[in-house]
Amino acid sequence: LQVFDDEGKNVTPHPLFQPDPNTAVPRQEKLFKTPKLCFSTYSDLQNPAQREKTKSVDFGLANSVEPCKEGAVCCPGFAGEEAALTEAELEQRVDIYLSETDTLWMLDLPTAVVSTEAEEAVRVLERNKIYVEICNAKIDSEYFEEKMVQTISGAVKTKEVQCETITVAEKGMTVTAWDLDNSLDASGTEPPKTEEPTDTAEKSSKSPTAGEHGQAVAVPSARESAVPARSHEDRECHSEAILTSENLKQDLVVMERILMENIFQPKLAVYRQIPILIEPDVASGTEREEEEDEKEKKDKKKQEETSLRPPASSGLKQSPAEAAAPGLEQLWSYRCDLTSGHSVSSMAWNKVNPDLLAVGYRELVSQGQKEGLACCWSLKNPMWPERIFRCEHGVTAVDFSLASPNLLAVGTADGRVAVYDVRSRSDAALLDSSASLNKHTGPVWQLRWVQEARGATGGDRRERLMCISGDGRMTQWFIQQRLDCFDLMTIKRTQRGKKKLPGEKGRKSEAPISQQAAGMCFDFHPEDTDIFLAGTEEGHIHRCSCSGKEQILGTYRGHKGPVYKVAWNPSSTDMFLSCSADWSILLWHQDSHTPLLTFTSVTAFVHDIKWAPKSAFIFAAVNERRVEVWDLSVSIFDPVLSCAASPKGNLSSILFAKNAECLLLGDSCGQVGVWHLHNLAAPST
């Protein structure tokens, strides 16, 4: 069949199956001729009148449509011969059925375009708008990046490994002292040659040098004299190498730690508040029982004496009625030959390791100034410092850093500030202010690492090093490639106005030699580190601010001599203490410029004061000879404890222990005594 349109064009679809032309096609016989039906045009098939005139014929084996003359559609007949149709054949009805085969989809590409007149056009436009908004919102985001990625999912693989069981074997051997000696000889020298005693005796008896009565005479042989002299030198070098090896030093340190723990175990147990270990007794049963009874009696007697009165070295005399009164008991002292002849100027605990103590030593003599020391002591060895840093001048102040606990800041009497690394065994300073153009010209009386209150929070808070000096400057140091500073405040002298008597003429005031007053001490507020107190040589205390135009917020006048120390109360942050060379201790409130209380017990300089870390009412002070512990909840007139804790020298510094009920007292003899406090009141905030 062929299909033509109205214009006569052939629009017959091509068959999907193309037969192979090489295949032989069987020829049809003439017996199977089929009459051919012709139509003038394809539209005649659609005309019912013409279709009625058409004669129904049997197409038989006809399987194709061929064009006839004058554009008619015809069906082939028998062997292509045309036969004339009779009237009966023309009147015969012919039925033709046109049908479609099943559609076979070879490729399907869904369209990505929708007509604007379609029903889903509104929904598609809405989705496109939302997608554009999401893409625009992620343009500036650093977590969004647009990329085209083709992900290939690899095939899952399973691996199994099997191995044999690992066998463990132990091997050992016995080594004697002779094996060790032979190994040392084999390392660089030849083993000694030995001879049989019988042969030696025979040779000596037969030799012409034998003595009378057959006695053998010792004659050195040539083999013995040929022993190289360098063997002795090699042994000495080997011994020196052993003595200077790092392994031996480390082993000696461990041995030293063990010995110190055994010697100071009872004292360290009291400091740590743990039970005291009792050495095992190897005596017989009866002797052991007798010794235990005697020991118990001695312990009871000692406890009674301790509870009734303090130790003899403390200088206190108590009656049995005062058994519950506070007392001091000395545990040990940090001292050695190196620190004797120096005076303890300052002490500071490490912020991370509470067992590490830094002590500064100085010595001022009439002929000149002795060198200073900064030592780091550990509880593991109270008899020798772990680190020793030597300075050309006396050390006046020390303090550990909190951000970097291995850094120790040291101030000296010549105005030098140095930072040491305690992890290093070298005594050279990590940073030094000697090359700074803004270095101090007077003694650095106090320095301290202070954390900034503003800015970063938590562990990121910055830390600054603050110093006060005798040249009247309060400086802040910054650590970079070198150590340098800038002036935070300059302390100026204040003129005291005197009342004029009636009829007295005014006199011209004499100009001071220096316009700046020497700074002696400072302390930062425990809650707001922008506020600090500064004590001067004039006896004044200035409350200052690190920020703002007005640095001095107020001045407290109450002392008649240099102010040696000021200390904020860590619990009640509105109160602070001050001590001076005028023999007095004053209690202040920051809103009042007159002291609230005055404490005076002896006529001596008060060198140092410290608040108890766990109580708002207890503080300790040291004067030249005695240590005093005041409890404001018990009495404001007399200290609850006062004793002479240094019989040889004058007390110069005081410090509370962080994790024990103990006091540390430094004196002018170069020793730091550790004292245990008894029967103090319960901590109160």
Automatic annotation (TrEMBL):
Residues 192-205, 230-239, 295-307 have a biased composition (Basic and acidic residues). Its main location: cytoplasm. Residues 1-24, 182-242, 284-321 are annotated as: Disordered. GO terms for molecular function: dynein heavy chain binding; dynein light chain binding. One of its GO terms (cellular component) is dynein axonemal particle. One of its GO terms (biological process) is cilium movement. Keywords: Cell projection, Cilium, Cytoplasm, Cytoskeleton, Flagellum, Repeat, WD repeat. InterPro entries: Dynein_IC, WD40/YVTN_repeat-like_dom_sf, WD40_repeat_dom_sf, WD40_rpt. It comes from the Eukaryota. WD repeats lie at residues 556-598, 599-633. It is found in: Cytoplasm, Cytoskeleton, Flagellum axoneme; Dynein axonemal particle. PANTHER family: DYNEIN AXONEMAL INTERMEDIATE CHAIN 4 (PTHR12442:SF12), DYNEIN INTERMEDIATE CHAIN (PTHR12442). This is Dynein axonemal intermediate chain 4. The lineage of its organism: Eukaryota, Metazoa, Chordata, Craniata, Vertebrata. The gene is Wdr78.
